[in-house]
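== Sequence, structure tokens ==
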Amino acid sequence: MKKVGLGIAAVVALLLLGGFVLHQLGDVAKTARAGDCARISGALDSPRYQALDCGSEQANVKVAKVLQWNESKCPSGGMDYSTYTGDSTLCLMPNFVQGSCYGQDAEAGIAKVDCATKDAVKVDKVLTGSTDGAACGDSRAAVFPEPAVTFCLHRGDQRKQ
């Protein structure tokens, strides 16, 4: 039962990020590159993209891939990417930091929170270059195929056994 609750919390947090499709990117798509980080805010009403250093506390997404005019979908085979669309489409993944906790945020979709926050998700490991969900052991694996990264997650408000 504990694993089910953990899985649900992790999926809910990730679906918040993966669920919003943002439009009217404008010139950002012309300058954004894979590996860039940003803060998405105004997720529901008036989405805004603010380019930030990946180490910034406010950077909640990373550009996984910039789709060209003839590509219609973000990479598949793992978690769904968020998209930010304008002249081009940016495939976005969370900019999770190992040891940090994340939760729902009405303005940004997902944001760093105190681990004691209800339904917070803690990032146990960030496995860059890996799509092996089994490497997470008892933690919930969130796998992104391009670039290859696996986030190992558990409920932040519960001690990991």
